């Protein structure tokens, strides 16, 4: 695929650390203009414009999406996320914390962005050189054929951190198709990074193996064998993120090898795509409407 050949304008939601920050730094080196959104401004990325924002509450995420000037953006990247706490926690809007921060916040943010019309519309005031539709990239973990607890995405009946995290993965796979179908003027892609050494893999391991094993055994192995976010950004993300070839690959999910990941069998059977989408949008509405 082709490398970036002209200046691009990116917003990275969750670009203050980890993969998002490394992707932003690699893009800046290539001559792109980058804005990052998160709670904490990193000290080592002065080239980026920083927007301070907490995405825990859906209403705040939507308000942030309304307030950003998306009209000059070529691309919005979502790399925000957490792993689930051992015990269920809920936001003030009544949403399980991992689902809220890692998945629902992205729906809410895009609700805000896509509410703008005319010359405030996402991408409306880009350089006339922009040869492609405005793009959205959704980082997650597609391709593992994960399932979701349909009917209990909010883990009100039963909470297990790993299951709830799988829910966030599936809800993000659904987001790719949902956004692409909601707005024919944009292209949307999902991205699976594989394991990248950001601190998150050790937290994942703790969800399955417990904190002691994760930190004493998995952590040191991660440091030895898993790629750094910087090398991942350079080698796997830059070659695709502004590629003209993606123009014809709307809704595609990309593996670390850049190959396209087939649809999750769980989502294509038993109407599960629609069930997950309906339940997610109902939770989003509930979050917006919550009296807090
Ligand atoms: N690393 C991996 O091995 C791996 C594997 C599979 C999938 N992924 C996916 O890739 C994405 C990025 O992962 P990562 O490893 O880069 O994660 P990370 O290093 O933990 O970074 C997460 C980002 O999310 C932001 N964030 C967290 N809570 C937030 C909140 N309440 N409000 C606003 N921003 C918030 C953080 O910024 P602040 O702290 O400044 O708010 C940070 O910029 C995630 O979607 C993850 O699920 C990662």
CATH third-tier fold name:
Rossmann fold
Physical arrangement of strands within the biggest beta sheet:
3-2-1-4-5-6-7
The CATH architecture assignment turns out to be 3-Layer(aba) Sandwich
What is the end-to-end distance? 48 Å
- State which percent range the strand residues make up: 5-15%
GO molecular function: oxidoreductase activity
Keywords: Oxidoreductase
Organism: Chytriomyces confervae
Protein name: NAD(P)-binding domain-containing protein
Brief characterization of the structure:
This protein is of the alpha/beta class and 292 residues long. The chain is 42% helix and 11% strand. This is NAD(P)-binding domain-containing protein.
Summary keywords:
single chain; 292 residues; alpha/beta; 7-stranded parallel sheet; binds NADP nicotinamide-adenine-dinucleotide phosphate
Explain the overall architecture:
This protein is of the alpha/beta class and 292 residues long. It has a single domain, classed as NAD(P)-binding Rossmann-like Domain (Rossmann fold), CATH 3.40.50.720. The protein has a seven-stranded parallel β-sheet, with helices on both faces. Strand 4, helix 3 and strand 5 form a beta-alpha-beta unit. It is globular and about 50 Å long. The structure holds NADP nicotinamide-adenine-dinucleotide phosphate. NADP nicotinamide-adenine-dinucleotide phosphate binds next to helix 1, helix 3 and helix 5. The site of NADP nicotinamide-adenine-dinucleotide phosphate (NAP) has 29 residues, from helix 1, helix 3 and helix 5.
